[in-house]
Write a structure and sequence with these properties.
The chain contains two helices and three strands. It is an alpha+beta fold and 105 residues long. It has one domain (12-99). A three-stranded antiparallel β-sheet has the order 1-3-2, covered by helices on one side. Helix 1 packs across helix 2.
Length: 105
């Protein structure tokens, strides 16, 4: 990353197709950038737009590939959470069953 001086305009904008990325993945992926950038997530019809605007004068310019990678990672995490939700719920119920009210074991 390089610094951009006094630029406070949007320095990176990407569009990500809704057919691949859920809105929850956009929020999860954008979370990484919140400390250094103002993050805007917009609905562009068939895609989500993500714009980053630096908060400070010496904020580094984000790399487009890094942003796309973080969004892809977030989409993967959301997908895995959805796919394993039922299994995780069952495992948690089984693990907590000895502590259920009225259980004398």
């Amino acid at each position: 990353m390089t610094t951009h001086g006094k630029n406070t305009m949007t320095i990176l904008k990407v569009s990500l197709p809704k057919s691949v990325f859920l809105s929850t993945a956009m929020v999860l992926g954008a979370q990484y950038y919140l400390d250094q950038y103002y993050v805007e997530i917009s609905d562009e019809g068939v895609a989500y737009g993500i714009s980053l605007t630096p908060k400070g004068e010496e904020t580094p310019i984000p790399d487009r590939r890094e942003l796309l990678n973080r969004m892809t990672e977030a989409a993967f995490l959301i997908d895995q959470a959805e796919r394993t939700r039922e299994f995780r719920s069952a495992m948690l119920a089984k693990a907590l069953s000895p502590y259920a009210k009225g259980d004398q074991t």
